[in-house]
């Protein structure tokens, strides 16, 4: 079904107004790189246009869906790695963490038969948890480096007592992991009360019964929490926080322009 010109114009107006509010407030509060949301929105527009074109063909073939998910995963790994420094070791660690976490959740849901193995289900479930895995990896990695730098005296004390690097930062890593996972837990806690989840609404609009849509949403929420926890745990386990968080190093973690 096509979209009328009037609807397209109304959409453009709404987007422009929302973006104006965002940029005006960021500028007023002197937020660094205040134009980032504009760049991000333009990128989203282009990427969604490409995605819509690809999905019109890919959704009918599971092999194409796998390829689409691999591309999404690759971009997620690239984005998160840049946020955490971008060196080769970080890229490998992020790739292993995200890939393992996504694979475990996808295999669990489909091998148990909770979701039928179709291109639509694979793309919807896999796409959502991949995006959340990227966010958790970025948040947990950055928080770990920052917290290690802030508590460097405590860590030196542990090291002076003969503790291993891993033991010296264990409590700090635990807090960093917990902080990174708070959004996922809160999202699950308030679903249906504060938020109307996209997967649920999309399933209902696609013709599924509210019961079936709710079942799918619960699987998505469980998958998000499992994927995020696995990814964060692997980042904590594989990081070298002593080197990454040493005072002067944490400040050098890249925060690149969205473009």
Automatic annotation (TrEMBL):
Keywords: Membrane, Transmembrane, Transmembrane helix. This is ABC transporter permease. InterPro entries: UPF0014_fam. The keyword Amino-acid biosynthesis does not apply. It is found in: Membrane. It comes from Dermabacter jinjuensis. The chain crosses the membrane at residues 46-79, 91-116, 122-141, 190-210, 216-237. It holds the Pfam family UPF0014.
């Amino acid at each position: 079904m096509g979209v009328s010109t009037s609807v397209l114009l109304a959409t453009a107006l709404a987007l422009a107004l929302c973006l104006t509010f965002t940029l005006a407030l960021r500028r007023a509060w002197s937020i660094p790189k205040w134009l980032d949301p504009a760049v991000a929105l333009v990128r989203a527009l282009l990427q969604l246009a490409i995605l819509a074109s690809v999905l019109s063909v890919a959704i009918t073939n599971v092999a194409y869906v796998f390829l689409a998910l691999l591309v999404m995963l690759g971009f997620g790994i690239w984005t998160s790695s840049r946020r955490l420094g971008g060196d080769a070791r970080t890229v490998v660690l992020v790739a292993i963490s995200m890939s393992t976490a996504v694979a475990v959740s996808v295999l669990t849901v489909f091998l148990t038969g909770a979701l039928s193995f179709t291109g639509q289900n694979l793309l919807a479930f896999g796409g959502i948890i991949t995006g959340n895995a990227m966010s958790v990896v970025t948040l947990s990695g950055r928080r770990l480096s920052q917290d290690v730098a802030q508590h460097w005296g405590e860590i030196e004390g542990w090291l002076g007592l003969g503790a291993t690097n891993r033991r010296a930062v264990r409590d700090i890593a635990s807090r960093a992991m917990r902080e990174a996972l708070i959004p996922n837990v809160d999202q699950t806690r308030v679903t249906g009360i504060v938020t109307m989840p996209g997967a649920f609404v999309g399933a209902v609009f696609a013709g599924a019964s509210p019961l079936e849509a709710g079942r799918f949403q619960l699987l998505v929420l469980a998958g998000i929490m499992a994927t995020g926890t696995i990814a964060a745990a692997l980042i904590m386990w594989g990081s070298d926080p002593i080197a990454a968080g040493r005072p002067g190093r944490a400040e050098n973690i890249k925060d690149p322009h969205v473009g």
